[in-house]
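Sequence in, structure out.
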Amino acid sequence: MSGLEALQSVQYVTIKGKRFAVLDVEDWEALVEWLETLEDLDIARQALAALRKANGDREKAGWLSWEEIKGELE
């Protein structure tokens, strides 16, 4: 299920005059995953724009080399 489908599946309840949105947990997880994907895409677009602005020079674009960060992932 896509994030948009999860949003469309929301149901509403009113308790003590206050309205709440209710989602199935699977729909909620799909929505979170969809939002995380959108966030990742935005980060990738920004990185690509910075790389283009730096004429393909990764260092000028602010990218770190593998040698600088590989220890953080081990």
